[in-house]
Amino acid sequence: MSKTNIDEINRNIYDIKNKDEYDFKIKKGLTPEIIEEISKQKNDPDWMREFRLKALEVYNKLELPTWGPDLSELNMDEIATYVKPKSKLNDSWDDVPEDIKNTFDKLGIPEAEKTSLAGVGAQYDSEVVYHSIKEDLIKQGVIYTDMETAVREYPDLVKEHFMKCVPVYDHKFVALHGAVWSGGSFVYVPKGVKVDIPLQSYFRLNSPESGQFEHTLIIVDEGASLHFIEGCSAPKYNKVNLHAGCVELYVKDNSYLRYSTIENWSKNMLNLNTKKAIVGKNAQVDWVSGSFGSKISMLYPMSILNGEGAKTEFTGISFAGKGQNLDNGFKVVHNNINTSSVVNAKSISKNGGKCTYRSLVRINENAKNSKSSVSCESLMLDDFSISDTIPVNDIRTDEVEFSHEAKIGKIGDKTIFYLMSRGLSEEDAKAMIVRGFAYPISKELPVEYAVEMNNLINLELEGAIG
Amino acid sequence: MQNLLEIKDLYVNAGEKEILKGINLKINKGEIHVIMGPNGSGKTTTANAILNNPSYKKSKGSIIFDKEDITNLKTDEIARKGIFMSFQLPEEIPGVSVTNFLKYAKNKITNKPVKIFEFKDEVKKYMDELKMNPKNMDRSLNVGFSGGEKKKNEILQMLVLNPKLAILDETDSGLDVDAIKTVSKGIEMFKNEENSVLIITHNTKILHSLKPDYVHVLIDGKIVKTGDASLAKEIEENGYESYK
Questions:
Q1: Contact (Cβ atoms closer than 8 angstroms) between residue A279 and residue A312
Q2: How buried is B115 (Cβ within 10 angstroms: 0-12 exposed, 13-18 middle, 19+ buried)?
Q3: Given CB atoms, is B204 within the 8 Å cutoff of chain A?
Q4: Residue of chain A nearest B102, judged by CA positions
């Protein structure tokens, strides 16, 4: 798929609102009774029901973060945490109900599945409505399924890993996630198996005043490799929606995982997501992240480099427009010798939007001969947008190479004049500068997502001039 | 001779300061004009005013291009009418390759799809002539380019975009003798009976290899003398002192 014409955008695709139809919508709020009811609806095994109730207790004990964006508008009494769509899990798009299928069609998911993906998961509100994986991967022992099926069919594998990488007491919204999680994908790649074509899960939240809490658990066994892509979007409503997903990645010795995200939540969404990877000996996890949507985002993927020679790269971009406060970043812990981390983070803010890059680099005493290099760059498109960088560097040994670079810039009138003198309109000129700025990130994405990212940039810039 | 550009009694301010104080200039198709003048005389302002840079305000006068009043058109509209300007200090655009930029600009100027293979051949031909490193095609526009590479890149853009009027603002400044020859060659390649070139310069080096039809001397925002190529020679010898 060589969609290179960046003009062919339809801004409506992300905003299509289907009727709020569902099989079951839990009443708003958060009580043990509500958790019991979700668990019943989901046919949880006992251990999972107990897990949820314990997580709720933890949630009630923990405080909201005392730093970062103001979350006071979030009122859990106004959020329905479980919305079961009018669809069972299907393995054929033909069986997915018409309006839900149409939504995914317009988002290009079935098309991408045909041309460039080895497997697809599609979640609508709280449940996965479609899941598929190529036959040859099944033969090689690769598991790619919705999380509920995994709980049922691979209980040992799930119990051993579920919320062990991200424990429920990490922070309040992880505890919330543990209590109400629903949907998400489970991937297991057996030892030595290289999955050459990406798998993709797409998360769509349609229901107003609700939350999405999908759980993604990926285990890449020794010497294996995988590229996993997640996409997410929602139509815009007046009241707050909440996303508190959780991603746990186990990247075992000598294996490789690339985890790409294109996030375009609507601008009434609070995106309080948690992602973490545990990386084994000579293994590598690469994060590629494009963050465009949400009213507030607090997202700091984390790599824990436990194995000798473990590596991680983070490549991410945030784009904040009017009314958006995107507090994103990256965390890495170097926990062994010869580990390395590379961070390339960019942000764009316009129309009063705020982007903060918040990060932690911790190099422990035992991580001698490790390297870390961090570069963050921000671009502000006007005088009233905000950009901030809050890095924490906690280096506990001298025998390391560490560098940190931060740059903040604006689009100059001279640059715009130069491009306009070549026939570009003011909007074209700004879009070209922004696309160029984002290029080091977009080039890391598969081509069709790079195109989507450029489309999103154009969408964000439309009407921004004047 | 058919007229291409006519500037009538143009007054221009940069900020509070009046820079151009009644410029009159006529350029016909097929001609090469030179505006010479000391620093601060309004040469670059003239170029920017023709392209209606919003940082320069016109208080009086008009600019007619190809029988059309372009005085208040937007810069990109003027560019699409067929005026090109080579910048004294070309801007750097990280993340946008020279190829992609040229393709995009060509598409905007011609309003036609660019045929990739023909386009690449054409660009390659020009780059050979301008002795440009073919690797520059994939580099970000002007990022990390030397002064000479930037100027050649401007000439490359001129050749690719093929305007009716090319304004070259101090294209020769900061270049060594060889680079000036190469740039002159690019201008010769561009020049024909249907288009025109306006060279803005404060020295005369580039005029050794290009033969202008008219030379205008700009002092303190006014054209104080117009002559043929011999005027440039005279200024080379005597400077601007006698015109001040």
A1: yes
A2: exposed
A3: no
A4: A422
Interface contact flag, B54 A413, Cβ < 8 Å = yes
Task: State how far the Cα of A414 lies from the Cα of B48, in Å rounded to an integer.
Answer: 11
B138 — phi, psi (to 5°)? Answer: -95, -5
Per-residue pLDDT reduced to its tens digit, A68-82? 999 999 999 999 999
HSE of A185, CA atoms in CB hemisphere, 13 A: 29
What residues contact residue A50 under an 8 Å CB cut-off, 6+ apart?
none
Q: Is B7 part of the contact surface with chain A (CB cutoff 8 Å)?
A: no
Strand partners of residue A140: none
Q: Is the ipTM of this complex over 0.95?
A: yes
The pair of structure tokens assigned to A146 is: 């919705």
Residue type, B69: D
Question: What distance in Å separates residue B25's CA from the closest CA in chain A?
Answer: 21
At residue A262, what is the residue type?
A: I
CB contact under 8 A, B161 and A422: yes
- Supply the mean pLDDT for chain A: 92
Q: Cβ separation of A417 and B54 shorter than 8 Å?
A: yes
Rounded to whole angstroms, the Cα distance separating A50 from A462 reads 49
Selection from B189, B111, B203, B192 nearest residue B156 by Cα? B189
Q: Does B93 touch chain A (CB under 8 A)?
A: yes
pLDDT of residue B237: 87
pLDDT, tens digit, 9 for 90 and up, residues B181-231: 898 999 999 999 999 999 998 877 788 888 899 999 999 999 999 999 999
User: What is the per-residue DSSP string for B6-18?
Assistant: EEEEEEEEETTEE
Pair of tokens at residue A285? 């996890």
Q: How far apart are CA A137 and CA A212, in angstroms?
A: 29
d(CA A441, nearest CA chain B) in Å:
10
Question: What SS3 class is residue A395?
Answer: strand
Residue-wise pLDDT for A264-321, tens only, equals: 898 899 999 999 999 999 999 999 999 888 999 999 999 999 999 999 999 999 999 9
The pLDDT of residue A334 is above 90: yes
- Tell me which amino acid residue A388 is: D
Q: How many CA atoms lie within 13 A of B31 on its CB side?
A: 18
